[in-house]
Amino acid sequence: MARYIGPKTRIARKFGEAIYGPDKVLEKRNTPPGQHGANRRKKTSEYGTQLREKQKAKYTYGLLERQFRIVYADAKRSKGVTGEVLLSLLESRLDNVVYRLGIAPTRAAARQLVGHRHIVVDGQVVNIPSYRVKPGQLVGVREKSKSLEVIVNSLQGKSHNKFSWLEWDEHNKTGKFLNLPERADIPENIKEQLIVDLYSKN
After folding, report:
1. CB under 8 Å to 198, separation ≥6 — which residues?
2. What is the mean pLDDT of each run of 10 residues along the chain (202 residues)?
3. pTM of the entire structure?
4. Bridge partner residues of 123 (DSSP)
5. Alpha-carbon torsion, ordered 37, 20, 112, 70, to 10 deg
6. I want to staple 111 with a disulfide (CB 3.0 to 4.6 A). Which of 5, 93, 129, 159 is the partner?
7. How far apart are CA 171 and CA 117, in angstroms?
8. 169, 175 contact by CB (below 8 A)
9. Cβ-based neighbour number of residue 133 at 10 Å
10. pLDDT tens across 110-126, in order?
């Protein structure tokens, strides 16, 4: 399966929440997509509920199934509660860190900036969106990319220090990844235990 590039509002309506950020269309039409979306009354099975939560997480962070399974396997091998570690690892992806720092307006835009070599980690260009940022590392904008319109517009008027695990240096346009975030600090509305329950059946 290729990465989804269709209408984001359709996916947001599927889950009934703005997983990609503020969505004016969703506010007006908060019903499942499709001809009969507003009239669906079908009860979802336990498996269906778990699958839906995994799909929500995949769409939110922009991962394909294979990538998501790799992160889950790493979370399962790590110490701590598997579901909470899973979300912490997803938050440490370079494309997500770029998005959280406000360098890009969306995760998709952040992924593109990373892929086009506009982002540096500890001063070195890294063009792998799935690169896992480690505590203490510095994530910033490549010197010759600081004037890019998408970056300038995204950085204007943003509150860059609203996440406790990130620290932003406005002068150098650089953020520091302080530590892996605790579950309570991650704002995403994802029931991670349902994902763990789903994978534990395999």
Report:
1. 47, 50, 51, 53, 54
2. 58 63 55 54 83 93 95 96 97 97 94 97 97 98 94 83 90 93 94 96 75
3. 0.83
4. none
5. -80
6. 129
7. 21
8. yes
9. 23
10. 999 999 999 999 999 99
Amino acid at 186: I
Tokens of residue 190, six digits: 């994802």
| Owner of token pair 């969306």 | 106
